[in-house]
Amino acid sequence: MSSFLFLRLRLRKAALCLFLALVAVCLPLGAPVQAAEQNTPQVAGQGTPQLDVDRFYDNVVLVGFTGVRWEDINEKDTPNLFAFTQQAEGANLVVKTFGETTCPTRGWLTLGSGVRASGTCAQPDIDGDGRVAQWDSYVAGNKDNPYKPHLGLLGKIIRGNLVGDGVLVLGSGAGLALADSKGGVVGQYIDTVRVGDDPARNAGRVSVSDGLLHLDGAQDLVMIDLGQVRYGNSAKAESTREGFEATKAAFTLDETALPDEARADLTAIDQAFGQVIERVNAAMATPRILVASLADSQSSRAELSFFAAQGLSSESSASFVASDSTRHEGLIQTTDVTATLIDWLAPETIQSRYCAGSPLVVGAQTDSLASSLVSDQNRARLTRILVGPFYSLFLGLTLVTALVAWRVLRRKSGDSTQGRTAKNSVAFTAVTVSLLPASSLLVNLVPWWNSAHPRLAFAGILVLMAVAIAAVASVPAVRGKVSLSLAIASFVTAGVVAADVVVDHFISSSLQFPSVLGAQPQVGGRFYGLSNATFAIFAAGLLIGLAVLVSALVRRGKNIQATILIVVCAVIALCVDGLAMFGADFGGPPALTLGIALLLLTVSKRKITVPRILVALVVAVGVSLFFSLLDYTNPATQRSHLGRFIQSVKDGNLLSVLSRKISAAAFGLPAPLALLLMLAVILALVWLWKKYAPLQKVSARLGLSSQPEGARTDVSAAIAYSLPAVLLTLISAAFINDSSITIPVVGGAVALMLYTSALLRARQAQLA
């Protein structure tokens, strides 16, 4: 009786222990960050901060254009840009805003607001009073922008910190980026001819060379728009491609070579850039020069764009550029350029918190800057077109294998030699298919994208890795230890993901970035941490593997040890998933917490009650808030989206953020309907759990013995413990995160194949 009371008390406190353990483990990890923040300048509260002339002694020159990639730069076609990059810091620039690709107008608006801009792609016109004629339409077009951009942020900050004629603006794109909140261009504006514009639009404009006559060493900031390289039916860039075209783009690779009609524009931009550099070097002693291509060249596919700089560091050598917003050397975002300008020209302004980017930093030196960045661009492009084929292959094999396994399990002659061979073959196939997602990350250990036939190389390495791991995992099953085989395959799936995010914090492992299962940089989604698909396989593998170990302990009567094991593994897994330095996942920890809580209830055979549901929900929400608050202690420029969520709450945007995420998770349904759908799904899960979760019912339906003498080959306990937890985790994560259906589909497919393999092995061992 005393043992029963102790177990009951322990289970009631399990959720609280889980949260306290998280605090104990994770809080020290945030201590160094907090200490570092104490040494950083405090953000000004009120008033206009003054420019620190002792610190910012350099002139800042930003030369912008659109449609140029690193692979377009060479000594023959672009001699001036090529010469500039020989002693420059460089990176691939993510220009993603909204839609399939980014048009020049949105690119310049994003630079000016520090947040991804939406709305019309109509080219800007600057009137005689120095005001953007279409400003009101740009503001209206961003009214429903979920990122809530403050259009004119950069211009407003510059106007408040630089006085007199300290700003020179050439070209309408630069004027758009340096317009203030009312559409008035900051500084001296000169309407110059832009490459690639319709000749009628350039009528009355002065040449770039004439505009450069106004440049002298007195300007603190010079921003120049040289024009655009646009091709490939660029008019379609103003809208998102839908239907068949969007589906086709996921499977095909467009021609990447620069077409003849665009080469003349690129040459003209390079010539104008040469004039700019010559004038800047003549007028300024130590300028800081940023050169950025701020939008895509075409509508058919998003690309990584060109960025190079001189003056980011005192070293005059080629180096990679990075930022805290991407955490990858050689990869930055347009909003990082905005943050850098603010950091240089107005470092203590309170408005800087509205910028989503982080200031640029210089990374490692390299003798092959251009070739490395072109290789990264090629890898991202090839990975993007492999996403569709990979998911088709993985889900197709999952469906076929499940159907074949169902037929094999229904055969009455399963104990024959032919039946045993069929079960073993299908079981091996199932575990191989379950390991394809994890193997798709490990493929990136080999530079397959540099091979002569990259798609064949990717497919070959993928299959070989999955088969090799499956062979190792199948060894215990051959000896009758089916549960151990299931645990190995499950923990490999979860372990690959966990190892990637942990190792990536210390060295750039880049297993899931870019990857067919993770994210692609040109899409502009997640740049670090766990993506939704990787969280799905991480959670499924973890819960199934943990259920195998727990079921073994429970069969031996070690219930206390089983509970301790669940809590310890939960703390480690939640730290890997939720800490900003590792997984940086906001929507994953609450779902995983609910799944672990259900696993605890299932193992202890406790009923689901309203108080327990409320405790689990409170702890689930508390876990994510804890990670977010921990990240919020970092300096503003070093926070991930976790800490920025807390800032959004402080700014009064909580309801809009939650509404956007809930609506996106429910296929665009309004938030109230989405909440009703969530409630219906949760009630359905509770009913399924009560009806099918008891171990005896699972064992009977699976046709497996649950008696102690069959413990070596019995997997029914592992399925009974893990299945409800896996379903709850994946479905709740689908509602919390934006990608909705991806999480349950990918995680469910992995779980289905793991269960299928274990069932076939267990049935075969029982018949033997």
Describe the fold and architecture.
The protein has 768 residues and is α/β, with parallel strands linked by helices. It has 27 helices and 10 strands. Strands 1, 2, 3, 4, 5, 6, 7, 8, 9 and 10 form a 10-stranded mixed sheet that branches. Helix 7 links the parallel strand 3 and strand 4. Helix 2 (14-38) runs parallel beside helix 19 (559-578), helix 13 packs across helix 27 and helix 17 (482-506) runs antiparallel to helix 27 (742-767). The longest helix is centred in the middle third of the chain and has 42 residues, at 369-410.
**What Rg do the Cα atoms give?**
29 Å
Mean pLDDT: 82
Structural class: alpha/beta
Distance between the termini: 41 Å
Ranges where pLDDT stays below 50 over 5 or more residues in a row are: 1-9, 27-57, 234-244, 705-709
Report the biggest beta sheet as strand number plus sense, adding barrel if it closes: 10 strands, mixed
Q: Helical percent range?
A: 55-70%
Give the beta-strand count: 10
Determine the strand fraction and express it as a percent band: 5-15%
Question: Total number of helical segments?
Answer: 27
Query: What shape does the CA trace take?
Result: elongated
Summarize the structure.
The protein is of the alpha/beta class and 768 residues long. It has helices spanning 2-12, 14-38, 79-85, 104-113, 135-141, 153-161, 172-177, 199-202, 208-211, 243-249, 260-283, 334-345, 369-410, 417-434, 436-442, 454-478, 482-506, 532-555, 559-578, 588-604, 610-632, 641-650, 654-665, 671-692, 695-702, 716-736, 742-767, and strands spanning 60-66, 89-94, 167-170, 188-190, 221-228, 288-293, 305-310, 319-322, 331-333, 361-365.
